[in-house]
Amino acid sequence: MDLSSFDLEGLQSLHLSYHRILENHINKLEELNKNNNSDDKLLRELMEIKIEQFRIQISAIEDRINALNNQKLRFSVEYMKWHFGVFKKAVQIHFLPTSNAFKTYGGYITGTVLIDEDDPEGLMQAIREGKNSDGIIKFDETVSDEMPGDIKEKLRTIGFYASEIITIY
């Protein structure tokens, strides 16, 4: 499949769709294996081939997402802290499906960006200099009741990289 015509959002949708299909195929194979019907041997072999093909495609999609993501930073630490940290404005952040943040925190988080209260001048200096850097953003998740407390604490203390953000609302 030629992935060069897909933009980042299209690749993200494709990635999620392929993952769902892969999960369905894996579940179907597990079901076939449980039944252990000798008549299903060919079907099991075909399902294993399909699963491998989807894994290869997902890997190619992830490589393309990473390549596009490395070309240009969409949201910098400075931007996020200035617009959503200083003014304590709520924001919904969506993560790249291939990012560690996606795997750790889920597809999106909602709340406020935390800023280092001890160094407001450092942030102001970076903004005056027009810096747009990748780095750690710490976050206070305020909406999700389903997110475990230890994951919320991890957001507040460890955070995620600005380059892991695909879009904000």
Keywords:
14% strand; 55% helix; alpha+beta; single chain; elongated; 169 residues; 2 domains
Topology order in helix (H) and strand (E) letters: HHHEHEHEHEE
- Report the biggest beta sheet as strand number plus sense, adding barrel if it closes: 5 strands, antiparallel
Range of helix content: 55-70%
The structural class is alpha+beta
Number of domains: 2
Folded structure, characterized:
With 169 residues, this protein is an alpha+beta fold. The protein has six helices and five strands, in the order H-H-H-E-H-E-H-E-H-E-E. The longest helix is centred in the first third of the chain and has 31 residues, at 41-71. The two termini are 31 Å apart.
Summarize the structure.
The protein is of the alpha+beta class and 169 residues long.
Write the layout of secondary structure elements.
Layout (H helix, E strand, L loop, with lengths): L7 H28 L5 H31 L5 H10 L4 E5 L4 H6 L2 E7 L5 H9 L7 E6 L7 H9 L2 E2 L3 E4 L1
Antiparallel strand pairs: 1-2, 1-5, 2-3, 3-4
Helix pairs in contact: 1-2
